[in-house]
Amino acid sequence: MSDQPIQMHITNDPMFAENGYTVYLRDGGACWIIDPGLPPQAEQIIAFVGQHDLKPCAIVLTHAHADHIAGVDDMLAAFGQLPVKLARGEWPMLSDANENLSAGLGMPITANAENVEDLPVGGELTLESSNWTIGDVAGHSPAGRSFYCAEQGIVIVGDALFAGSVGRVDFPHSDGSMLMKNIHETLMTLPDETRVLSGHGPETTIGEERRTNPFILHGI
After folding, report:
1. Is CATH 3.60.15.10 what the domain over 7-218 is classified as, yes or no?
2. Is the peptide bond before 14 cis (omega within 30 degrees of 0)?
């Protein structure tokens, strides 16, 4: 169990307002880079890692839509061939601009990761002394994942759940029924005080969304 609070450095891109997270427990320690997105995020993440003498040990992806993977190649160029952790069902999206939705925007994005590792539902990840459970939040994307640290009351949810909303389900491979099932079974079973860190927008809590989110209350 960790007695050090989890630290989060958040970067954001001006096009999609996607939240990229650098997660660590202490200056000079290991860190994850979660969902590095479009410029200027990569430059900001690299600078922050250097300023705090962090040691990136993995790129962790909640899902592989273009705005969440746009900075992967920059991270690999800066920090070497880190493992890229992504649910197997989304691996094709790394190298296919049609699958990750960037081709339709006229700005094809791919990530040339050589070391991709699966994120099995129910599995665990460890960052120094913190332990995280991998959850199924598929529906917005084909195999979206959440990361829950019970001892610190934090869940990182990608684009499954937002403050007052849920992820879009009008994309190829989206499934609204699946998304709502997974939100209720994976996220709404967590304690009310759990901090929710989303792929876009501000932080919220499970309790706040349980009480006020119209999609949780009434469905899609």
Report:
1. yes
2. no
